[in-house]
Amino acid sequence: MALAGDEPFSPSVLGTREHWDAAYERELQTFQDIGDTGEIWFGEESMVRIIRWLEKHKVPLNSSVLDIGTGNGVLLVELAKSGYMNLTGIDYSPSAIQLSEKVREKEGMSNIKLKVEDFLAPSAELSGFDICIDKGTFDAVSLDPIDAVGKRKLYVGSLCRVLRPGGFFLITSCNWTKEELLNEFREGFEILEELPTPKFCFGGRIGNSVTALVFQRKKVRPSILDKLD
């Protein structure tokens, strides 16, 4: 849970590229040795929660989906198994993309596109997505020891560039509360729904250890001059 101020979290190795490169190098070696795909961030229920929302709202199967910080790519595999056809995963760790490529090959999901990309400096071809999904990447950005505040702002700016107006952003976080995420994404996004997550009880108070929200990118409203044309 974030505290007040510009620096809500203490810097952590979990916010560094070096940590994730090393982590995915280990997971890649483990996959090559025994076929284990590695950790599923926030557990399998987090993937079920996302897919259930997409199905409930009848999101077309040909919608373009971007998995931000795809890691081992398992979420994309599950989306493909559910019928989604236009899937892209990016990660700034080359080892993560190598691992996700091997998982994709094992599952026979050749239609999944995978790329080494830093979301804070996305390439021009990353644009116009109908759906963007984040399970823990914004959390990691928030822990970067070097200018986490600036990088959070870069993240929001990148999201505005890659997600089309009217598109949906599904975020799962263990660091941020609903109110804090509403504040972080107040520029250009509006909240649609809070998804149910496991609750815990401590000291007579009930809370959530994970926050899952669905935002919609605000549609660009025509100016008065546009209306006069």
Provide structural commentary.
The chain is of the alpha/beta class. The protein has a single domain (about 15-215), classed as Vaccinia Virus protein VP39 (Rossmann fold, 3-Layer(aba) Sandwich), CATH 3.40.50.150. The protein is built from eight helices and nine strands. The chain has helices at about 15-35, 45-55, 75-80, 95-105, 135-140, 150-160, 180-185, 225-229, and strands spanning about 65-70, 85-90, 115, 130-135, 165-175, 190-195, 200, 205-210, 210-215. It has a seven-stranded mixed beta sheet with strand order 3-2-1-4-5-9-6, sandwiched between helices. A two-stranded antiparallel ribbon has the order 7-8. The protein is globular, with a radius of gyration of 18 Å. The N and C termini lie far apart (about 50 Å).
Distance between the termini: 49 Å
Task: Just give the CATH class.
Answer: Alpha Beta
- What is the architecture at the second tier of CATH? 3-Layer(aba) Sandwich
Write down the overall geometry: globular
Helix content: 25-40%
Calculate the mean pLDDT score and round it. 85
CATH fold category name: Rossmann fold
**Strand line-up of the largest beta sheet:** 3-2-1-4-5-9-6
How would you name the oligomeric state of the polypeptide chains in this document?
A: single chain
β content, as a range? 15-25%
Order of helices and strands: HHEHEHEEHHEHEEEEH
Strands, total number: 9
Query: How many domains would you count in the coordinates?
Result: 1
User: What structural category arises from helix and sheet content?
Assistant: alpha/beta
Count of runs of 4 or more consecutive helical residues: 8
- Rg: 18 Å
Largest sheet: 7 strands, mixed
CATH superfamily: Vaccinia Virus protein VP39
Q: Catalogue the unreliable spans.
A: 1-5, 200-207, 223-229
